Amino acid sequence: MNLPPEILTADQVTLPLCAPGLALGVLLLRAAAAMRGCPSSIPHLLLQLQNLLNATAASDTLLEPYIQHQGLDPSSLRELCRECRGVFPSEAGLRALSKAGFLRTVYATLGRILHGLDALRPQFSETKDAPKLQAARWTVLGLRNNLHCVAWLLNSSLQTPEPTRADTDTRGSPTPSPRLFQAKLDGCKFLCGYHGFMQAVGTIFREWGESPRRSRRHSPPRGHLHKATRRTTLRSRRPW
C-alpha cells in the first residue's frame, strides 16, 4: 500500500532561537506542504486506516512468534501473557471520548507503541520474524500519518490526548527488568495489549466509515431522531 508522505508536527521541527517570526513562517510552510499530501476524502482515509489496522490486529503477526521465541508456549504461561487488560486504552474507554479526544488518544498511544516495538528489537533480531517487527513499525508510522490527515480535515488537534483509565498504567511499553522471566512477560503483555488496541481502534474507525458524519457520543439514537421528525411533521399538518 502506498502510504502518504511523512507529516511534520511541531515537535518534529527544531526552531532557531532567533528570528521567531521567520521560524514560525518556515514551520507553517512545511506543515502546509506536508498536508498537501493528504487525501481530501475522509472515507478514503478511513479505508486506509482500516487496512493498516487489519494488518496489525491479528495476534499471529507478533504475539505468537514472540511466545514461541521466548519459550512461553506452555498454556499456563500463555494465560499470563493474555493478562494484558489495562496495558492500553480499552474499547470502552475509547468510545467514551469525543471524536477529537479519540484521535488524540490513539495518536499518543501509537507513539508509545513505537517505543515498545523498538524495545523488542533484540528479541526479534536473530529470528526469521524480525521483518514482521519492522513491518509493524512502518504500519504504526503510516497510521500516525493518516491520523494527522484526518485531524487536519476535521480541523482538530493531536497535541493533548484526553485521559482514559489506562493512561495511569505504566505498562505501555516493555521496561527493563532485573529478572529475565519478568522481562519476557512484560514484552508478551505489551504485544497482547498492542493487538487488542489495534483491533478496538479498527472497530471504531469501521463504524466511522459506515456513518462518517455522525458522532455516536453526541448524536441521539436513530429511533429518537425519527420520532422527533415524525412529531414535527404531524404538527405541521394540524390546521391553524
Structure description:
It contains ten helices and no strands. The chain is mainly α. The protein has a single domain, classed as Up-down Bundle (Growth Hormone, Chain: A), CATH 1.20.1250. α2 (42-57) packs antiparallel against α9 and α6 runs antiparallel to α8. It is elongated, with a radius of gyration of 22 Å. The model is unreliable at 1-35, 166-171 and 218-240 (pLDDT under 50).
Short structural summary:
Helices cover 61% and strands 0% of the residues.
Main beta sheet: none
Count of helical regions: 10
Mean pLDDT level:
75
Number of domains: 1
Number of strand segments: 0
Radius of gyration, CA atoms, in whole angstroms:
22 Å
The CATH architecture category equals Up-down Bundle
Shape: elongated
CATH top level class name: Mainly Alpha
Structural class: mainly alpha
Alpha carbon gap, first and last residue? 62 Å
Portion of residues in helices?
Answer: 55-70%
* Percent strand: under 5%
Kindly identify the CATH topology: Growth Hormone, Chain: A
Run of helices and strands: HHHHHHHHHH
Low-confidence stretches: 1-35, 166-171, 218-240
Which SSEs are present, and which pair or pack?
Elements (H helix, E strand, L loop, with lengths): L19 H16 L6 H16 L5 H7 L5 H7 L9 H5 L3 H21 L1 H4 L5 H24 L26 H31 L11 H16 L3
Question: Keywords for this structure?
Answer:
240 residues; mainly alpha; Growth Hormone, Chain: A; 61% helix
